[in-house]
Amino acid sequence: MSASPGPAPRTGPQPMADSAAPSPAGDPADLMGHVGRSWTWIMGSAVATLVPGILSLVWPDATLHVLAVLFGLYLLVTGGFRFVAVFAREEHGERLPGLFSAVLYVLAGVLCLRHPLQTVAALSLIVGIVWLVSGVLTLYTGLATKDLPHRGVVLCVAVLGIVAGIVVLALPTESARALTRLLGLWLVLLGLAEAAVALAWRAALRKPSRR
């Protein structure tokens, strides 16, 4: 799960001037915050989720080794997207859940790539835990950030991630083929949900302020 748009500006959705303001030169945190607030960055995260999901569905006979590498790369890339999105948050206290989620994705990705010949149960456990914890953190962010535009969409993505994690952890998969179909289906659903978040964020940024 990769929906991490960050909160809206404190006074509600602002015109594009806020998101297009140049970042101070030489400040990497401000630069990454500027990138993380872009709806195209969120859409990029959605594409990074959709691609491995589609590959898994159209290539169900992939070996466990290939599946572990594919999901390891997905987790690493998504962790990178989430890390940059952390800097889009206004308050430092709001960055902790996102940072924890990003680190979790990266560590899980490294684990998949370092031990690609693990069992089906081990791969299910890794992906299920990542989705479950990430969904809970996204749900917390959605509930705690009162001025988040289209909060309902973000909450739906969080719930979807939690359900995905529970399903992957609860349903026994005895073969790589069954696991491939299951994970591929959830990746596609999560990717589509994240794309909806990106489009909602774009609409919020383009909506003029009314005072």
With helices defined by DSSP (H or I, 4 residues minimum), what is the helix count? Answer: 8
Global mean pLDDT: 78
What structural class results from the helix and strand content? Answer: mainly alpha
> Termini, distance in Å?
36 Å
What fraction of the residues are assigned to beta strands by DSSP? Answer: under 5%
The general outline is globular
Using only C-alpha atoms, the radius of gyration works out to 17 Å
**SSE string, helices as H and strands as E:** HHHHHHHH
Please give the share of residues in helix. Answer: over 70%
The count of β-strands is 0
Unreliable spans are 7-25
The largest β sheet comes out as: none
Structure description:
The protein is mainly alpha-helical and 211 residues long. It is 73% helix and 0% strand. Residues 7-25 have low confidence and may be disordered.
Write a concise keyword list for the protein shown above:
globular, mainly alpha, 211 residues
Brief overview, please?
The chain is mostly helical. It contains eight helices and no strands. Helices cover 73% and strands 0% of the residues.
Layout of secondary structure:
Layout: H1 16-20, H2 28-36, H3 39-58, H4 64-86, H5 95-114, H6 120-144, H7 151-170, H8 176-206
